[in-house]
Amino acid sequence: MGTLSSFSFRLVPSDFRDYRLSCRTKCFLCGDGLLRKRRRIVLERDVRRFNLVFCCQDQNSGNDDRSDGGGEKENKDKSKLATMSPDEKEPDGSEKHSLSSRPPAMSPMGHSYSNFQVDSFKLMELLGPERVDPADVKAIKDKLFGYSTFWVTREEPFGDLREGILFIGNLRGKREDVFSKLQNQLKEIMGDKYNLFMVEEPNSEGEDPRGGPRVSFGLLRKEVSEPGKTTLWQYVISFVLLLLTFGSSLELGISSQINRLPPEVVKYFTDPNATEPPDMQFLLPIVESSLPLAYGVLGIHLFHEFGHFLAAFPRKVKLSIPYFIPNITLGSFGAITQFKSILPDRKAKVDISMAGPFAGAALSISMFIVGLLLSANPSVSDSVDLIQVPTTLFQGSLLLGLISRTVLGYTALHAATVSIHPLLIAGWCGLTASAFNMLPVGCLDGGRAMQGAFGKSALLTSGLATYSLLGLGVLGGPLSLPWGLYVLICQRTPEKPCLNDVTEVGTWRKAVLVTVIVLVVMTLLPVWDELAEELGLGLVTTLR
Q1: Sign of CA dihedral 453, 454, 458, 460
Q2: Gap between the Cα atoms of 257 and 253, Å rounded
Q3: Count of alpha carbons within 13 Å of 432, Cβ hemisphere only?
């Protein structure tokens, strides 16, 4: 009796639409264990979408057949497993054969290790997200589309994992009116089972006769297209990150007053030979005086997130809890806030994305201006101690440096150090963090706004330019590298499309976004020594 040492998976050719039909097969290779597992998957997801055929072949048994005279050769035919849907049979009961959209897998050759072959697309179909029911596709195509709305000419896969259906055809009316009508009819026919997307037709050769791009309609199951709910661990992570952000903001306040630290404390943290820790009682007054700056920085970022939620509420868009990113240089890089529901249109994407930076920048500008005025008139703020900082700090931003130069004067900023109010530092850090978040790249606020206003292709172009400027250190100075790594790791993926991903956002939104990006570049653009000497931003010493 032969032993099963190698096997192969093969696919029976089937039509592209038919392979989404349900699987009613048994697996003779893995037995009842895998069969129960597959049944559980189907019951949990309530879908029938696999027209997959596994052909399990015992190679060693074939060798035994040659030695035993073919005694077990008949088992080869019994090991084939096929699934046939009702649509695949002719009226006389015979099987209907059709060509596959991909060529069938070739028979495995070589060693037993290479005989294990699995079609990756079919495996993704087995383990991947929920697909659209073919019966629902037929009903939607017959009842939803027509001469008066949208005439379907063909269908294609839709979605990141090809789990949906894209209806391509000819629009028979104003796109916004047709889309609204189709959404209402879909809800009447299928309830809340599916989401309908209006997107630009892929690989379109021309524009729509009525003007604008040609459109298509994508269909996805609601549980696939909508983000999942926030878990308990995500709440815990968010709370921990909030505590760490408060700690980094407090450390920013302490480091800003390093000139006031006792010599014992400075020596302990700077001298590697120091072994005895100083009396921490010396730090308590410094920590206490650093709290206003920490509260100011943290308050700016909380106000930033409040702006997002305030803009999302009237549009019934759900947002996730914010995940703050601590940073000891700015106190915080901001927060990662995800959309927990599908955006209705591109206008909502632009408005919600820009509302947060606008709110944070408004509070930051207020603190920055008040801090400048109090720094220029120290007698007004007797209750708060001013902080001594090097004037080269103002070379970190062309825009903020010029504003500071105008208020504080040439003499103050041309010295080695300058006394400033803590509110000025809080406003400076808040404006810098808001500018970083408005860079048009990835899933940052600026990237979302760019994608909503000008499309995904414009986002790819602006993202490449942003990565180049960050990599060269042109934007952000010493913070360009850590910020670029943060974006690459956490925020590089563009936002998913809206339900109506075609309708333009209007001219004034585009103009506002372009103006904001120009201000962002001026905020993050550092001043080189020659220009700083010319503008009077910091005392520049040149060695000769």
Answers
A1: positive
A2: 7
A3: 30
Please give the C-alpha separations between residue 471 and each of 454, 464, 519, in angstroms, as whole numbers. 24, 11, 20
Nearest Cα residue to 204 out of 166, 240, 237, 176 = 166
**Helix ranges, 152-262 (H):** 175-190, 222-225, 232-256
Q: What share of the chain is helix, strand, coil (3-state, %, to 5)?
A: 50, 10, 35
The model's pTM is 0.71
Q: How far apart are CA 449 and CA 445, in angstroms?
A: 6
Question: Does residue 494 contact residue 455 with C-beta atoms inside 8 Å?
Answer: no
Residues in a beta bridge with 194: 221
Q: Are 539 and 415 in contact (CB under 8 A)?
A: yes
CA dihedral over 234, 236, 242, 248, signed as positive or negative? negative
| Cβ neighbours of residue 361 closer than 8 Å, sequence gap 6 or more | 430, 431, 434
Other Cβ atoms less than 10 A from the Cβ of 154: the count is: 9
Question: 150-158 and 164-171: which strand pairing?
Answer: antiparallel
> Which residue's entry shows tokens 């349900």?
22
Q: CA-CA distances (angstroms) from residue 26 to 31, 52, 485?
A: 8, 11, 48
Residue 331 CA to residue 333 CA, distance in Å, equals: 7
Contacts of 263 (CB under 8 A, 6+ apart): none
Place of tokens 């379109």: 204
For residue 105, give the nearest of 212, 14, 224 by alpha carbon: 14
Closest C-alpha to 331, from 233, 415, 254, 393? 254
Instruction: Give the residues across from 420 on adjacent strands.
Output: 387
3-state secondary structure of 327: strand
For the chain, the average pLDDT equals 75
How far apart are the C-alpha atoms of 138 and 189, rounded to whole Å?
A: 12
How many residues are present in the chain?
Answer: 544
Low-confidence ranges of the chain (pLDDT < 70): 1-130, 259, 266-272, 274-275, 277-280, 282, 380-384, 536, 538-544
Long-range contacts of residues 381-385, Cβ cutoff 8 Å, at least 24 apart: 381/421, 384/292, 384/421, 384/422, 385/289
| Phi, psi (rounded to 5 degrees) for 249 | -70, -40
3-state secondary structure 136-160: HHHHHHHHCCCCCCEEEEEEEEECC
For the segment 78-127, what is each residue's pLDDT rounded down to a tens digit?
433 333 444 444 444 444 444 344 444 444 444 444 444 444 444 444 44
Q: What are the structure tokens assigned to 149, written together?
A: 């709305």
